[in-house]
Amino acid sequence: MATPTGRLGTDLEPGAVAAWRARSQRLWGERFATPLDAFRHLGAVQSQEYQPSKLTPAMRTSPDRDGLPFASVDSVDALIDKGAVIRTHVLRGTWHTVPVEDLRMMLAASKDRVLQLMATNNRAWGLDAITLGRGTEVLAEATSGGRHLTREEAAEALAGAGVADPASTRLIHLLMHAELESAICSGTPKGGKQTYANFDERVPAGPIAQDEAIRALALRFFTSRGPATLKDFTRWATLKVADAKAAIDGLGLEELRVGEQVFYYAQELPEARDAGPVVDFVQGFDEMVCSYTDSKDFVLHHSVPRTRFPGRARFTSVILLDGQVVGSWKATPKKESVLIETWRVRGFTAAEIAALRRGADRLRAWYGKPEMELVLEHEAA
């Protein structure tokens, strides 16, 4: 594999970009001491699937108890419970979990663009600026004094204050708007349910200018996810290309060209890893998958023609072979075991099957089950 020699000067063999990213994201290599360190490195973890999303920081962290391959789900839950990380809508119109100290920075960088993109749907649901503003005021007041409200309790507060029809999709948009306007954020879960807390009571003060915020976000993105393209970053963070490019130029990031695409990075090309296949079972919205919408050709496994990948995966969660998507998986916990169903777009060699079994066994241990039922299926050539 060639090493970059200055700006715009390398040829990377197939799969090398994905392997580099796996090191940058710390899916491979030295693990973090705690899940909080992993959250701080990644900056934001996409989390619309609440329970599976906890696997993303856990996999990048050293075990916190005997018998586990990486950090336990309890150690991630503890961070959410005490507000060290916040699950909220930021960067894009979906859930993310972010370190509490980074939330104001991320909102400063992306809030205006996300609100613009939400405007059409808001109008479709009859939510004008007055209604949204009133809803935000009500939610900020209802959560003040350390009150953490479930979605149902938030709806009751809105209805009691005269906000019309705070239910279903209208309620979701009212809550999202209040999150983006720094009125509310996630609170301590109650009975297994998401709650909403007062933003200023839970998030440290510290306003930041938008250009400074975008620059900080760019540094975090390319440090933790490089090599990646400008459009990877703009789509991940919902930014204007001009604003993102100005931030990248200001940071003086390293560049390389792969084909017709220019990639930026802050972490150097890692040393070659040990020979042999590596299989990782990651949640469906892991950052190895969701961070690269522009350079997605490096996300899918290079050994399989793009036409072989289905439009919709068999299961939600994803199997990575040497850092690239090659299939999907589903886990069904039982009393003493976990059923792990796998499906791949191609058959595996004996060495790849062995690596897949090792990856599945790490998943079994994370679920805390002594036994595993493993189902292996693949698309016929």
TrEMBL record:
Name of a matching Pfam family: AlkZ-like
Keywords from the named record: DNA-binding
Molecular functions per Gene Ontology: DNA binding
Protein name: Winged helix DNA-binding domain-containing protein
Source organism (scientific name): Glycomyces luteolus
